[in-house]
Amino acid sequence: MLVFLTGAAFGSLVCLSSASALAPAAATEPAALRVPGPLSPRNASYQMTARLDEKAHQIIGHLVLSWHNLENRPADKLVFHLYQNAFKNRASTFIRETGPRLRRDIMPEHGYGAIDVSALKVGRDDLLSRAVIDDTLMTVPLPVPVGPSAAVQVEISFTTTLPKVFARSGYVGEFNAVSQWFPKIGVFDCQSGCRWRAHQYHGNTEFFADYGVYDVEVDVPVGYGVGATGVQVKRTVKGDRQRLLFHAEDVHDFVWMADPRFVEINDRIQDEWGGVNVRLLSRRGLESMNPRHLHATRQGLLELERRFGVYPYGNVTVVLPPADGNGAGGMEYPTLFTSVGLSLPPGLHVLEGVTAHELGHQYFYGIVGSDEVEEAFLDEGFNETFTTWAMERIIPGPCNAIDFLGLCFSQIDQDWLGYRGSLRRAPIATFSYLFPPETYSPVTYAQTAMTLCTLEHYLGPARMEAGMRRYVDRYRFHHPHRGDFTASFDQGAGEDLGWFWDQALTSTRVADYKVLSAVTRPHLPAAGLWDCPPPPRTVAPNPADPEARAREDDVREAEEAACIGQPPGRHEFDPQKDDPDTRHPKLHDSDVHIQRMGDFVFPVVVRMTFQDGSVVRETWGFDEQRAAGENRVRRFRYSRRPSALSRVEIDPDQTLLLDEHRLNNGLLLKPDGAPALRLASTWHGLVQTLIDLLAGV
Fold it and tell me: What are the b/e assignments for 554-593, b being 16+ CB within 10 Å?
């Protein structure tokens, strides 16, 4: 393994000798946390040994689990995940659902994997014969239940056969992505009836576990570089093997990656809590990409801390898999994540986007331990939203996703495109494994991002940040549910947003507002039969009825014009012929109709721009729309204005990013009264037209 050091400015690289690279760890052990702990309940802690058989592509492992029952009811069984059994054969739940493929990655031929448990003791009882294995779950009935607040020790010996790299883990060449590799206990939950929240490993699901302390000894050949969860606290060498001891606190998983071809680059991010050590495990040929990954990590972490508070760990490791191992790329683990080992032009910001996204999972999945199986939007969706915020900092400007060959797209544009491709299929709050095909990712990631970005535009950045910060602060190192999020967010934002959450999270309603029609014409007094002198008014118009007031104004105006110079009686009045002053009127009347095409109700602003540059902003509020029921059209009238209407725009500030069809949000009116044109003549309109076409409209 070659080791390189670089400063904060990504300066010159210095190659160290292999002897220096493999020097024993310092006498002072690095701390896993840089803030006082414990930070979590630490009810699922592991001591493990893992030996890599690099020829057989196996991990020979042994673990001792200390599990505490945090609930007020006894647990009469234990349930463990055996995730690698998903790749044991093509009859597994995972393969049956995926085809076998995941994220455009196809499972290699003959690349199977598995976990085999060879010994299992709970306390002093040998329970291997009683364990029941069903696909990726192992259930262990207990001779004596584990009571509330009680603890039990579990000892397991196992062998994990790594698959060829696919679906986040496995090997290719000498690269080993050792993830979801050990029998991991599920989450015992009695919030609404006691159950083990441990699902089969489905094609769309990721992971969920309790927090604890991990002490893991990894045994690999000398010369292999290893990146792992936590910090390395010890290294011993015996012959051609080395043993590396890693320690992690307040995490809910442990991953390690081993490869003799890693190129190590070290950096440090200074912040108000001291600093975070960054370790980039890169590869030859990616030298020009390394500064991009480090820059995204630096700016992403600073943005995470600005919004959500301290990153409590002392380090973070970034791993770039080999080009033929990117099936393990783009994945998050505690204090370690994988990005993509590709070389891309500067204008394609995929590297920065993936790095920022996977880094963000240190908070949404890591620090806030929501259930990625049952409520994936609480981590993937929130983290996709963070990615849009991070990219605004990492790559300032409107082209922070693509700025290449004349194409300019932002991260939000990309998410909106993904959102458009899966409308009306399933609510955001759907269990991951219940989504229809090709729906999980666009709904969980893109639609959630569009939902939260819409809310940010509605509330404003300050209130949005206050709501998200309240949620993160309240549920650090806990397992929150959807209701926990909405309640804490509303408290932080200072508003009951139930009207929004009910539609956005648990329904398939779609927002779509349209300028149905817009007409502007010269103003003339009303023609017809008029009594002169005008009769007295016996009933005053209702001041709360704008139409009644407008009619009263029209009547008074017409009576005054029709009765000039006329004897008492009823007279026919034609303003074009009888009133020369009206033949070249200076006033105009305009009539606009706005239609709610979709079922998602949202307060929208409508901006009317007149030829003299004057602007009128109207709001079609939520309560007004709901009170109107199925009457989905709102009329706006403007009488006797000194200028004709030239432009109508719904949502001119682009608050409602959930709007399905942006191109029906505006009309341009010609001064001569010709038919109105859709508002797509600007650069923004052209971009949205292109996105509409790409979305299959």
Answer: bbebbbebbbeeeeeeeeebebeebbeebeebeebbbebb
Distance, first Cα to last Cα, the chain:
51
In whole angstroms, give the CA distance from residue 539 to residue 590: 27
Range 157-196 burial, b when 16+ CB lie within 10 A, else e? bbbbbbbbbbbbbbbbeebbbbbbbbbbbbbbbeeeeeeb
pLDDT tens digits along 102-115: 777 788 888 899 99
Tell me if 169 sits within 8 A of 107, measured CB to CB: no
How many whole angstroms separate alpha carbon 1 and alpha carbon 384?
34
CB 113 within 8 A of CB 170: yes
- Provide, rounded to the nearest whole percent, the portion of the chain with pLDDT above 90: 78
110 against 258, higher pLDDT: 258
| Angstrom distance (rounded) from CA 678 to CA 697 | 16
Q: Three-class SS of residue 582?
A: helix
pLDDT tens for 288-308 read 999 999 999 999 999 999 999
* 459: enclosing H helix or E strand: helix 448-459
Contacts of residue 511, Cβ cutoff 8 Å, sequence gap at least 6 = 598, 600, 602, 656, 658, 659, 660
Distance CA 327, CA 340 (A): 9
Nearest CA to 173 among 259, 107, 106?
259
What is the pLDDT at residue 130?
A: 97
The runs of H, that is alpha helices, within 546-677 are 546-562, 575-578, 622-627
- Comparing CA positions, the residue from 357, 374, 42 lying closest to residue 213 is 42
**Tokens 């975070």 belong to which residue?**
276
Q: Which helix (H) or strand (E) holds 416?
A: helix 411-420
Measuring CA to CA, how many Å separate 316 from each of 179, 266, 390, 464? 16, 10, 17, 27
The amino acid present at 621, given as its one-letter code, is: G
- Bridge partners of residue 237, in order along the sequence: 242
In this prediction the pTM is 0.89
Output the pLDDT for position 23. 38
* Pairing status of strand 336-338 against strand 402-404: unpaired
Q: Which residue has the higher pLDDT, 555 or 392?
A: 392
Distance CA 192, CA 169 (A): 34
**Distance (Å, whole) CA 195 – CA 578:** 85
Residue 549 neighbours by CB under 8 Å, 6+ apart = 541, 542, 543
Mean pLDDT of the 660-676 span: 76
In this structure, how many other beta carbons lie within 10 angstroms of the beta carbon of residue 200? 19
**Under 8 Å between Cβ of 499 and 455:** no
Secondary structure, 3-state, 234-273: EEEEECCEEEEEEEEEEECCCCEEEECCCEEEEEEEEECC
Are the C-beta atoms of 316 and 276 separated by less than 8 Å?
yes
pLDDT in tens, 592-612: 999 999 999 999 999 999 999
DSSP 3-state of 593: strand
Alpha-carbon 546 to chain mean position: 44
What is the C-alpha separation between 380 and 447, in angstroms, rounded? 11
Query: Mean pLDDT over residues 266-287, rounded?
Result: 97
